[in-house]
């Protein structure tokens, strides 16, 4: 039965340079095949000129509300004393809440789907509407990992935000009838005794777009992602500063590419004759195609790493961490390689670069793994079952 689904996002899901945008875009695309989608998105930046054109085929109605930067600062200062997480306060506006409630009254949807706790505050008190909250990741755990490795001058704020987010993740649970999350490890870390009621909905891969292609290799090692995101910044610095010196001792000609949008200054600082930092990339497949090995030595962060799924789909042998593979669930040694310390990561990279047959074996195993489990149509059928159930 076709339903009217109201989707509330903290960002416009185009361009797709962040994990939450990717997840939202493909979920909307798949749900729109059998349901009517009313999309309401917040935005703290100017909307991309092609966003409406790209999203229009999948939505019956599209509404974007700009968040004022000066008012954000005022809310964050005021929120210091209120106890709510800063990232909830960052995205919340009473003015926008009234507009969202007016849209809900106008469209009278059968279901309300909210992505991330950032949007939950807008509708938490609406008790008569069937609602789903997509936690996506366990934000509190990501903050805790950043707290452990972060600089001393940020520890007070990180500790405060960690405690506030953890409490909010618990308190918001009972305000929604249905909950989803990206992986089983994330589900187990939600701070609520009924966490097992959360349905695990992983991300998928667009296999018509990300597929193996033959191209001349310009790079030996690639790391990709949004390079303004702290876990990716940490991973890029760890790769270049701690792992690659061991690789270069044995293979001095190895070239690395750090590919992705919004590089932090520290990431730009990694650029050298042997390291290229791209910044925004129009088509990430170009860099995947031109690389031999994908390395994502993630030390912090939560959730399922889209970058690893994409690289596997493109036929690249992948090296990552135990932390990242908890959500991925690939078999070590046949579908993915798992590093531990910098020297161990370096030896894995060297072994793949030195052995074409071994490189192909890991690439083939990873490709089979993702194609069998991460089709968007399959994973979104689970989401549809949650919403329509």
Describe the structure.
The chain has 389 residues and is of the alpha/beta class. The protein has two domains: 214 residues, Rossmann fold, CATH 3.40.50.2000; 155 residues, Rossmann fold, CATH 3.40.50. 45% of the residues lie in helices and 16% in strands. The strands form two sheets. The chain has a seven-stranded parallel β-sheet, with helices on both faces. Strands 10-9-8-11-12-13 form a six-stranded parallel β-sheet, sandwiched between helices. The chain starts with a strand and ends with a helix.
The CATH superfamily of the largest domain is identified as Glycogen Phosphorylase B
Give the CA-based shape.
Answer: globular
Number of helices: 17
Share of residues in helices: 40-55%
Segments where pLDDT lies below 50 for 5+ residues?
Answer: none
Strand percentage lies at 15-25%
The helix/strand series, from N terminus to C terminus, equals: EHEHEHHHEHEHHEHEEHEHEHEHEHEHHH
Q: Tell me the CATH topology of the largest domain.
A: Rossmann fold
Strand order of the largest sheet: 3-2-1-4-5-6-7
Radius of gyration: 21 Å
**What about the largest sheet?**
7 strands, parallel
Q: Give the tally of structural domains.
A: 2
User: How far is the first residue's CA from the last residue's CA?
Assistant: 11 Å
Query: How many distinct beta strands?
Result: 13
CATH architecture of the largest domain: 3-Layer(aba) Sandwich
What's the rounded overall pLDDT mean? Answer: 95
Protein structure class: alpha/beta
CATH class categorisation of the largest domain: Alpha Beta
